[in-house]
Amino acid sequence: MSDLPQPVESTAQASVAGSTEVTTKPLTPQSCALGSVISGVMAFGMYRMSGAIALSFAAHKIQSDNFIVQRISAAVRTLVIGMTTLGMGVFGVAALGLFALAIQLIIQKNNQPPTSKDS
Questions:
Q1: Is the dihedral of CA 41, 47, 52, 57 positive or negative?
Q2: What is the phi-psi region of residue 18: left when phi exceeds 0, alpha when psi lies from -120 to 50, beta otherwise?
Q3: Which residues partner with 22 through β-bridges?
Q4: Of 49, 53, 51, which Cα lies nearest the Cα of 41?
Q5: What's the CA gap between 4 and 13, in Å, rounded?
Q6: Distances from the Cα of 34 to the Cα of 27, 28, 30, 67, 106, angstroms
Q7: pLDDT for 53-97, tens place per residue?
Q8: What gap in Å lies between CA 105 and CA 111, rounded to an integer?
Q9: What's the pTM?
Q10: pLDDT digits (tens, 9 = 90+) for 5-53
Q11: How confident is the model at residue 114 (pLDDT cuts 50, 70, 90)?
């Protein structure tokens, strides 16, 4: 028949909402490539933002002699740079994974034997 995914019905949804069906969109290399580009752009933006934040923190030193203030500000600076770097890494890995999935889908599509429409 068709290679498209069939609608899936969850037992929890069926018991609550009667006969509710959940449909899914087919997975295509184009959608994976688009998601990879979007995620890559976000990773690059977070990379640039991490660098800008680090330079800003380096240019503006803490002007306090209080030991606790110095330690808390160092912790906050580390946390802010760490969070942007973590976001960059997550989006970068997602971009690579989506790109690899797009390539895998293209290879699988090319390796399938041709189906005849006459049968």
A1: positive
A2: left
A3: 8
A4: 49
A5: 22
A6: 12, 10, 6, 49, 14
A7: 999 999 998 899 999 999 999 999 999 999 999 999 999 999 999
A8: 10
A9: 0.70
A10: 555 555 554 555 555 777 888 889 999 999 999 999 999 999 999 999 9
A11: confident
Between CA 115 and CA 119 the distance in angstroms is 9
- Dihedral, CA atoms, 48, 52, 53, 59, nearest 10 degrees? 160
Q: What is the DSSP string of 7-55?
A: PB--HHHHHHHSS--B--PPP-HHHHHHHHHHHHHHHHHHHHHHHHHHH
What tokens does 31 get? 């959608």
Asked whether the beta carbons of 16 and 96 are under 8 A apart, the reply is no
CA angle 52, 54, 56 (to 5 degrees): 70
Backbone angle region of 112, left / alpha / beta, with phi > 0 → left and psi within -120 to 50 → alpha: beta
